[in-house]
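Researcher: Structure for this, please.
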Amino acid sequence: MNIPDFNVQEMADEIMKAVKKARSELVKLNVMVMGKTGVGKSTLINNMFSEPLAEVGIGKPVTDEIRKFEKPDFPLAIYDTPGLELGGVNSVEKLLAGVTKVITEGIATGDVGQAIHCIWYCVSTPSHRFEKTEKLFIQRFLEETGQFKVPVIIVLTQSYSKADTLALKTEIEKENLGIVQVVPVLASNFEINEEYTAKAYGLDRLTEVMDNVIPEAVRNTLVAVQKANIRLKQKKAQLVVASSAATAAATGAVPIPFSDAALLVPEQIAMLAGITAVFGLPVEKSTITAVVSATIGTVGTTVLGKTVISGIFKLIPGVGSVIGGMISGSVAAAITAALGEAYIGIMTMVAQGEMKVGEIDSEEGKKVIARLFKKRLKLKRDDNGIPEIELKETKSTKKALPKPKKSWRKNR
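Model: Predicted structure, token format:
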């Protein structure tokens, strides 16, 4: 069955609709952050996520002790607790009652988007100690909320010294508290003196630990809202590409003629939208148009039309001549996979600060995308069009476009 041909502008419109839908379907991720005053919670939050929720002003109070920070159209909420004290208004008993109330009420709604999905308990490494009050609080918390199985991660913040960090980590692990893990973090670069700066680390590991313990329903949300682990975004996006390539291979299992090439377009729309949602970057229609124009079509030309396909065949290893103008499953998969991999490459460059979103639509930006696409097409692939060598972290950027910063900025 034929479907209407898509030109680049129409395809971009459809992708933007799909992106909006994909983002609206992300379940809100709820993280509760606890710890004593001055442990660097705000720095941790703002360097972990793509929106600075710790700087949005006064959060919404959910109890006398706990405030909820969130932004419209951003699927993340941070529940911030006051600094734990030995007594007074922020005593163990008072704080324990508050956090237990929030967790219980969230679970009672039956809505996964209202539940607390993970807890960070922050301990400052320079303090050199994990106080008995903190140990008592975590023990009591796990006892009273154990049935809800909310994962608790102890985050060692401000971990400048490796020796101090290892000592404190070992001390806490000896307590056998039943937590998920102790994760040392230096959330931002720290200048020791004029000659030495301690480089930020640990946020990527914290993201991986969270991804392994939070509910399946919010894992895609975590990948989208976090900015600390680009590799995790790439891995999730590669799963989207592999799925789309397999579907394209099935579509071409009975070879389809050039005139029916538009049958592949819906799957490619879904793929590009899925990758966009994974990276969580603000993408405009002009960005999508540039990507499509520079890869499988030009404005006013039917996407995957005969002329475009004929040129693409020359870049795919082992295809040779095309009998009867037919597109096989492996060719359909190869084209789809190359498009997805090129898009991952460009999103990676943006996420790493090597290119701005607004620059993608320029002539130089389109050249970058085209080179990435052609590079991915030339990979040796299996019978389903999937690269036989697994994608590496920098394959779609550094190898496809050597020294992207220098080549990109050279003539600007």
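Researcher: Any notable elements?
Model: The chain has 15 helices and eleven strands. The CA atoms of residues 297 and 308 lie 7 Å apart.
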